[in-house]
Amino acid sequence: MKIVFLSQADILHDYEKINRNIKDAFHGMVSFAVSPHPHISARNHFVNKSLYSFGDALDLTRFCGVVAINKQQYSSCVLTTKDSSNFDTQLKLSFEKKGYAHKFVLSEI
Q1: Nearest 5 degrees, angle CA 107-CA 94-CA 28?
Q2: Residue 31: exposed, middle, or buried by beta-carbon count in 10 A (0-12, 13-18, 19+)?
Q3: Each residue of 52-102: pLDDT tens digit?
Q4: Beta partners for 69?
Q5: Where are the domains positioned within the chain?
Q6: Distance of alpha carbon 24 from its chain centroid, rounded?
Q7: Could you tell me which residues come within 8 angstroms of residue 30 by beta carbon, excluding any fewer than 6 positions away?
Q8: Which of 15, 63, 80, 84 has its CA at a distance of 20 to 30 angstroms from the CA of residue 92?
Q9: In the prediction, which pLDDT does 20 show?
């Protein structure tokens, strides 16, 4: 079984958290919290940090477009351009419909 890793650009990754949790992608999907690079987008950096904090406090299901995914399960989740959602939202919804495991890992960045 192999893992597919998808990432957005111009963001800060928490490589320690990724290395520690990527093994969970063998059984589904792992979404990793990231921060927009503060020098490129200070406003987005602040918004993301705030949303992660509120999500944690309110016990909301969170998701981010930086994901490690079981390749076989990823191949069964067809994404289309007809959907107005971003690819990461489409992917999460598809995984939920199929009952595949997924988790979110909060970053320290």
Answers
A1: 55
A2: buried
A3: 667 667 666 566 768 889 999 988 987 777 777 777 778 888 888 999 988
A4: 4, 29
A5: 3-105
A6: 13
A7: 21, 22, 24, 67, 68, 69, 102, 103, 104, 105
A8: 15
A9: 93
